[in-house]
Design goal:
Elements: E1 4-6, E2 13-15, E3 18-21, E4 24-28, H1 30-33, E5 50-52, E6 55-56, H2 57-69, H3 76-87, H4 92-98, H5 102-113, H6 120-125, H7 130-141, H8 150-164, H9 169-190, H10 199-222, H11 231-239, H12 249-257, H13 279-291, H14 297-309, H15 313-317, E7 324-327, E8 330-333, E9 340-341, H16 346-355, H17 384-394, H18 398-410, H19 415-422, H20 426-439
Antiparallel strand pairs: 1-2, 3-4, 5-6, 7-8, 8-9
Helix pairs in contact: 2-3, 2-4, 8-9, 9-10, 13-14, 14-16, 14-18, 18-20, 19-20
């Protein structure tokens, strides 16, 4: 009853709930399918699935929202606009289900009375929860609220709470300066509402947290502050704890530039090893994601982009549909400066996903959504963390898979070319090219391992 169109048998335009016969799967109208009954909404006159007392879901939703939002509203115009937004979604049934939640009813009641202003600050002050995030996304998608960087907004709230939890003024002052003038200023300058990633914010959180731990330790252990901190203090702290303590390096670089402490030097920490998987493991995972049913299609497509093109999950999540092009029967994907070819069978899988993306009818419709991996929240792409959790649950070593994929590519194609194709810097691809010259030869018994440069005697590229 939710399939609409023109009946191929009689030309009637409306719902097409039936089939011609067992040999013809084309959908046909109620009359041609021999389905008895009247399925015309008594309120709007539209033919479709009836939801309640002869009304369609959209009209039933409008009745409910009018009772909730137009009962002595503080701002009649704003409430009428909100009703239009909520009733305009592609699947009104989803909003009918959403508003049954007691938290949602309380939220809508607060908005109606004016106790919760219909602004970003008003919704933030109302608390947190998926019901608030969902409404915020819906309002942004339909222009009732301006677009904003949600990850940045959450980081600002987190930062304020972090400052308030610091008891010592000697610790709080430098942390607040560092977080505000280094991290927050940079994140704000790089913010692109609606297209942001939480990766930089997570890194900033880690560095701020580790800086607070260090300055607290410094004050409690040696009765010193950042101004009189010594190299010996820092060396002692780094040597006596986990490697995450090295994240204070950014703070000391900023402290030197800000003239708060110019005596301490912390070198860049080099990883002892570069995580990889074997080429056989990589190919096995590619086969599973291309031909198996280990997860739903969007996550399998994301996994192939990781294993085939060495793409980071933050970039995969934010890919737009315009990155995929098809010409003369060939599919390409733009990951760097120039589109790169997509081989079969991944090309067919990718194009199928493009035509059947999920969440296009969820609260806001598909109008103008640019994302290859759509979120269940209107106007947003999928969270990279969701991809990470699903692929890890399958058993894929994400960092190892990306490193191995990149090393496989640079062992066959010059590093600068790979950098342009995949959107990496020359330094990163050259580093992996150097690693590929020794690492791949260590995979004993791997039939698919690319030969090292020293092993190529036939002049092949």
């Amino acid at each position: 009853m939710r399939t609409r169109g023109i009946c191929p048998a009689c030309g009637h335009e409306g719902v097409l709930p039936g089939r011609v016969d067992d040999n013809d799967a084309r959908p046909v109208c109620l009359t041609c399918a021999g389905i008895p009954g009247d399925f015309t909404c008594k309120t709007c006159g539209q033919e479709g699935e009836l939801h309640r007392r002869g009304e369609c879901a959209r009209c039933a939703l409008r009745d409910d929202l009018c009772r909730i939002l137009l009962h002595h509203p503080a701002d009649m115009a704003a409430m009428q606009a909100l009703i239009e937004v909520l009733c305009a979604v592609d699947r009104p049934e989803s909003i009918l289900t959403w508003k049954r939640n007691q938290q949602v009813l309380e939220l809508l009641g607060g908005i109606t009375s004016g106790a919760i202003p219909l602004t970003h600050d008003g919704l933030t002050a109302a608390g947190s929860g998926r019901h608030i995030d969902h409404l915020r996304s819906l309002l942004q998608h339909h222009g009732l609220l301006p677009q904003r960087d949600e990850h940045l907004a959450r980081f600002e709230v987190w930062l304020a709470d972090k400052f308030d939890a610091i008891d010592s003024p000697a610790v709080r002052a430098p942390v607040e300066q560092f977080a505000t003038w280094h991290h927050l200023r940079r994140l704000r300058s790089e913010s692109r509402p609606g297209q942001s990633s939480d990766g930089p914010k997570r890194s900033a959180k880690q560095e701020v947290t580790e800086t607070i731990k260090f300055l607290t330790w410094l004050e409690q252990t040696h009765r010193r502050t950042i101004a009189n901190c010594t190299q010996q203090d820092v060396d002692e702290y780094l040597a006596s704890g986990p490697t995450t303590r090295h994240l204070i390096r950014t703070f000391f670089i900023w402290a030197k530039r800000s003239k708060l402490n110019v005596a301490v030097q912390i070198g860049f920490r080099q990883a002892r090893t570069t995580p990889t998987i074997t080429q056989d493991q990589r190919l096995a995972w590619l086969k599973e994601l291309l031909t198996g049913d280990s997860d739903s299609l969007p996550y399998r497509v994301a996994g192939v982009l990781l294993l085939l093109y060495a793409q980071p999950l933050t970039k995969i999540a934010a890919l737009q549909t315009t990155a995929i092009t098809r010409s003369d029967g060939e599919t390409s994907i733009a990951l760097g400066k120039n589109p790169v070819p997509v081989p079969e069978p991944f090309a067919s899988q990718l194009n199928y996903h493009l035509r059947h993306r999920p969440n296009l009818r969820t609260a806001g419709g598909a109008e103008g959504t640019p994302w290859l991996f759509t979120s269940s929240r209107p106007g947003r792409h999928i969270d990279p963390q969701a991809i990470m959790q699903r692929l890890r649950a399958l058993g894929i070593n994400l960092q190892g898979a990306r490193n191995t994929a990149l090393q496989a590519l640079v062992s066959e194609v010059p590093a600068p070319v790979v950098a342009e194709m995949l959107g990496y810097s020359d330094q990163v691809t050259q580093k992996h090219a150097d690693l590929a010259g020794t690492t791949w030869t260590n995979y004993a018994g791997s039939r698919n391992a690319a030969p090292s440069r020293s092993e190529r005697t036939d002049g092949s590229n």
